Fold this protein.
Amino acid sequence: MVRRTALREGLVDVDGARIAEVTEELRHRGRATLHDRLHRVRMAGGLALQAGLAAGLAYFISHRLLGNPQPVFAPISAVGTLAASVGQRFRRTVELIVGVGIGVAIGDFLIYLLGTGAWQLGLVVTVAILLTIFAGASVAIVIQAAATAVLIVTLSPSTQNLEIPRFVDAFLGGGIALLVTAVLLPLNPLRVINRAARPALDLLSAQLDATADGLRSRDRATVQRALERLRNNKEELATLAEAIEGAKETATLSPARWHRRDELTHYAEAADPIDRAMRNTGTLIRRSVTLIEDEEPVPDPMPDGIAHLAEAVRLLKHEFAVGEEPQQARERSLRAVSEAGRAYGAGVGFSGSVVIAQIRTTASDLLVASGIEQEEANRWIRTAFGDQERPVSEPAEPGGGPRPPTAPPVG
């Protein structure tokens, strides 16, 4: 009642603006969440089809052709090979078979000596894990050996001759998974990588744009939010690295994808510089927050250079996706460095000089990601930056403070 009375008397509705802002933020977050979920479905769609086809084929062959009355292990092995270790499926198949062999041997031996029961089961699992770890086996082999030992102990009393079908099914499931991946339903490796790279590059370009806008308006909160969002990039980078490994494996195993090997090599070489660009951008944004807090000068070319970096990332994503030489991304990266040189010449403080250095370093990372050798990229960066060095005692502006003695370093 007090609120309605105040509104009738012509007072400003302060709460209404805040509520509208929160509502709009929640609406935007809901749209972003739905977009992320749909993107994950598209990313996993091919893998889901491969897993379904491999499981069905493994069951059919084991049951109908090999006469296994309970073909449980074959489809499980097929799905495990496809889903548990993307990019290392051949190795995963070998690990399945080795783990099954170890589990069968340990389980049968201890059952022969001790019989079956609860404490025997616990002992079998413990021994299987300790022996595989002592032998230096991978985590996948350890888990598979323990799981197989459990099945041998629990099912052997009711199921005769379990060992050979289990062994055959593990081999069959892993082999069919490789067959589906390489021959029957091979994914387009470049499409897989493009979809995986999109979230990482979109995140990077969006936070660079936000930082440029925050510097122009000296809005510390905007830049701080960009820093926090960029820090949560581990999932995007892990997805990209896994997609690259999976695509390389597909191009190696699938004859239909052999012609993509050179392009995949280019992508694989771009993964590390993209990771470095993420890290260097984090330093850039963190120093931008300090720059605003310390009320240092922000020459107009500084946020312009950061905005050019954001556009360079978007161009790199587009040119990678369409299979073009990333010339536009390289040109925009060098333009960002040129703007950074102008900002440095106009006069910056300590944090500003670090921001300039990180613009140069991030641009160098993007050039390397585009296929330029590191030494050549550094030479291009120095040329684009220009001769902006001043003696430490010479002020940048009349009445201004001393300038840093050298241009910011590259790399």
Observations:
- The two ends are 63 Å apart (CA to CA).
